[in-house]
Amino acid sequence: MIFLDTSAFYALADRVDQNHARAKTMFQGLLAAGEDLLTHNYVLVESMALIQHRLGLAAALKFAKDSEAFEIEWVDHDVHREAVRLLARSGRRISFVDQVSFLVMRRRDVDAALAFDNDFESAGFHLYEG
Description:
Rossmann fold; 5 strands; globular; five-stranded parallel sheet; 130 residues
């Protein structure tokens, strides 16, 4: 199972993003291999808002439809509260959504993420390289 991050979703959606071609190749490889793909609803909200803001409503709606193909972990109150606690304790600038991602990945025993965000490696996860 591979975790999908906002940075990967945005790179896939924006053809002029510096990581677009790489993200597309890696994502197609994951699909061809039949790999299970996981994200959570906070990543979906963050991605959809970013895509809508930068690429427009049509792109955001396409993303919303396409995201139905992924396994989505719905963040509950306990995970949300723990992510807030970790955010408050962190001495580094790690986003709240990334804090949630790390908790979800640990809870689901996922060790790799399709992401263009080094915070995943700093948190002890591997970045999927294809």
